[in-house]
Amino acid sequence: MIIKSVEFLTSAVRREQYPPEGVPEIAFAGRSNVGKSSLINLLMNRKKLAKVSQNPGKTRTINFFTVNGSFRIVDLPGYGFARVSKAEAEKWGPMMEEYLSGRPDLLKVVQLVDVRHAPSAQDRQMYEYLQYYGLDGLVVATKADKVSKNELNRNLAVIRRELKLKKTDRVIPVSALHKTGTEEVLSAMDEILSAYHPGPTESEEETIDGCQEKV
Ligand SMILES: Nc1nc2c(ncn2[C@@H]2O[C@H](COP(=O)(O)OP(=O)(O)OP(=O)(O)O)[C@@H](O)[C@H]2O)c(=O)[nH]1
Ligand SMILES: [Mg+2]
């Protein structure tokens, strides 16, 4: 996939604020500080598209970006950061549930995990969520520059085992620092998007239901 254009579309915390349906979306989920925003910037080849921070909890809204004028990527707020206020943390679940459960053109949620650690209970829970909604199957292991080649292979196996991945599910190691892994992620996104067949629009449905009896 060649990224020709990318633009920030909108931030949302509620359904009414989401951009209109009818455009395929691929979202990115993971623990706060795992590197979601960094990965998005890397994939899109833009330094400051999604805000990256030393302070975890930077992304607290659902952020939509339009890519190549044809699909959207969605930066989801991170979970599992202790220093986020309780009130803030309590908003996370309903906000995610509302998005994941009611977005017909959401094709996949890329689950990010830190390659240095075994997936946390929250990572596993998030992935089960994605399985429940049929949005699972693509995992990105971030910060690959922080481990040796041996550790990398060992940890990828742990990630597969702990998230209970199927043989056909993919785990792609990436490093935002060394800029590696992007080609693999972009080509996986290409595959996902090429399988997109939008449902009939409301007006098309009307024609089918009404058997074109409007003569
Ligand atoms: N060494 C290294 N550091 C990384 C990598 N990816 C991200 N980081 C660093 O990790 C920190 C968090 O990155 P973000 O991209 O802001 O993480 P996030 O998942 O968007 O975090 P929230 O918005 O809080 O959910 C930043 O300091 C990044 O520079 C990577 O591949 N390698
Ligand atoms: Mg972020």
Unreliable residue stretches: none
CATH architecture: 3-Layer(aba) Sandwich
Count of all domains? 1
> Could you give the order of strands across the largest sheet?
1-3-4-2-5-6-7
The helical percent reads: 25-40%
Which superfamily, in CATH terms, is the homologous superfamily?
P-loop containing nucleotide triphosphate hydrolases
CATH topology: Rossmann fold
Radius of gyration: 18 Å
Straight-line distance between termini: 45 Å
Name of the top-level CATH class:
Alpha Beta
What structural class results from the helix and strand content?
A: alpha/beta
Q: Globular, elongated, flat, extended or rod-shaped: what is the shape?
A: globular
What percent strand? 15-25%
Tally the beta strands.
7
Question: Major beta sheet, specifics?
Answer: 7 strands, mixed
What small molecules does the structure contain? guanosine-5'-triphosphate, magnesium ion
Number of helices: 6
The overall pLDDT, averaged over residues, is 89
Give helix and strand order, one letter per element, not per position.
EEHEEHEHEHEHH
